[in-house]
Amino acid sequence: xxxxxxxxxxxxxxxxxxxxxxxxxxxxxxxxxxxxxxxxxxxxxxxxxxxxxxxxxxxxxxxxxxxxxxxxxxxxxxxxxxxxxxxxxxxxxxxxxxxxxxxxxxxxxxxxxxxxxxxxxxxxxxxxxxxxxxxxxxxxxxxxxxxxxxxxxxxxxxxxxxxxxxxxxxxxxxxxxxxxxxxxxxxxxxxxxxxxxxxxxxxxxxxxxxxxxxxxxxxxxxxxxxxxxxxxxxxxxxxxxxxxxxxxxxxxxxxxxxxxxxxxxxxxxxxxxxxxxxxxxxxxxxxxxxxxxxxxxxxxxxxxxxxxxxxxxxxxxxxxxxxxxxxxxxxxxxxxxxxxxxxxxxxxxxxxxxxxxxxxxxxxxxxxxxxxxxxxxxxxxxxxxxxxxxxxxxxxxxxxxxxxxxxxxxxxxxxxxxxxxxxxxxxxxxxxxxxxxxxxxxxxxxxxxxxxxxxxxxxxxxxxxxxxxxxxxxxxxxxxxxxxxxx
Length: 487
Known about the structure:
single chain, alpha+beta, rod-shaped, 5-stranded antiparallel sheet, 5-stranded mixed sheet, Helix Hairpins
């Protein structure tokens, strides 16, 4: 079964792997260079020591005073200088310390060739074995030629055996130090790799989460990434895409609503035409016959009352047909510039009797410097009258209606907002959208087309209407009309 390794883990592992390889290579090179430097330093110290011994003992070698030469050799031996051997000009051993006499392979043979004019020293590491041929110690063997003053040929040579224990200890100390530095650097690198992987992958995970939201149709998510790099630019592009998709979704929803509304209008128009044809003609005949009967002088009072009731019923049917046809009919607007406060004041005059009958108080608040709006005044007055009638019917006797008009600016543009509120029983929140649907009504005598017609007219003006109320605290209808610059 394949392991599901996250991007963060893979990125961290790759960074750690590359960092480990780099640290190992760097430490190997540094350690190698340090070993070479230490070996070179040891060699230079050995050559300096060999030259010092040569300067001190050359006169004895020239005089063949091998006894004094041996005494000087023994005096020079210490923990670092393991053995000293002098050879004559024929590469034969002349003197050496007692320790090295048992090592014939070292003592008896000079490492220098037969070229008596060569001044090049011989340097090589060597391992000394004990009597049982087990490793005893490692030494650096140096053999330097001896040239007395003004001599052109070699008079002999001196061979030194320098202990490598100190050098190897120093190499070990250096290696341990480098290893510690490498481990510390690797730990810091691992922490840095984890931090870097988290920093890189966290925005990517946010983007993945955002794509999942979008795949589910949720375009409201905004990704919060403040980095100024490519990931930040990608997040900004993603947020802009989400915003555009959300805007497109809203437009599609509005378009679907309008399409449904158009289909409803088409259906209602078709039905209305049938109703007008099937009902109006016989209804007119019924109405005329009732009027003729009601004009007879010998008609008793009870029959007259019944005929008046019938006439009222016919008038109600005619009103329903007219409103139905008005809702279904797509009329052209007669646009011009009007002041909203004048339209409202004219509407109030038209329902002044109804307001006075219920003793309803109207409180008006008009903002300063209200702009004129380009509207069909008759259509807008129809909207205001409908909302005012609903408010008047909703309040109790002695109720209150407030009308506020002001200009408001939003990201979508500048609007003239009209709010008509009352202190009636209000509209339940679940019905805030339903009240604008055709034939929806809570009145016993209503047909439910008033607010539907109001929304249709406002949509023709590129405006909106909505309910803002709480059940039990009254209703508030907000009407928005776009503000345009007057020519």
